[in-house]
Write a structure and sequence with these properties.
The protein is of the alpha+beta class and 131 residues long. Helices cover 55% and strands 21% of the residues. The mean pLDDT is 88.
Length: 131
């Protein structure tokens, strides 16, 4: 995504409630963490028993959808284990953009953190004025 598109998305979500904005930020951070985890799965080893392998598959197959104003982000991971290998592939895309990467998610998180910090500063200054 281009910088102006990311700025427009951040501005569109600026008027959201603090709780909703925090939930968007948390979901985007979880996508970032899961994406980083998938990179390191090359070095993982499968479970020794079939029950362990099925348990790992159940826990590590995920699907996250974040719907906010003017943007819908989708992330899914397909995780499988055989007796000898671990296979993992993930899919990150956005309905409204042709190309959407992890760097775009990091930029959105940074923008939302900036908004939340400004709100916290405003709340603290209002409390100081009341005292």
């Amino acid at each position: 995504m281009k910088k102006d598109q990311i700025t427009a998305i951040i501005e569109a979500n600026k008027r959201m409630s603090t709780e909703k904005l925090k939930s968007y930020k948390d979901l985007l951070e979880s996508i970032e963490e899961e994406r980083e985890l998938t990179k390191k799965m090359y070095f993982w080893h499968p479970g020794e028993r079939a029950s362990e392998r099925r348990f790992h598959e159940e826990c590590r197959n995920i699907c996250i959808h974040v719907r906010m104003k003017s943007l819908t982000v989708h992330y899914s991971r397909d995780y499988r284990e055989t007796c000898h290998y671990v296979y993992a592939s993930d899919n990150l895309y956005c309905d409204e953009a042709d190309s959407f990467t992890l760097a775009d998610i990091k930029k959105l998180i940074t923008g939302f953190e900036g908004i939340l910090e400004k709100r916290e500063k405003n709340c603290s200054t209002k409390e100081d004025l009341e005292k």
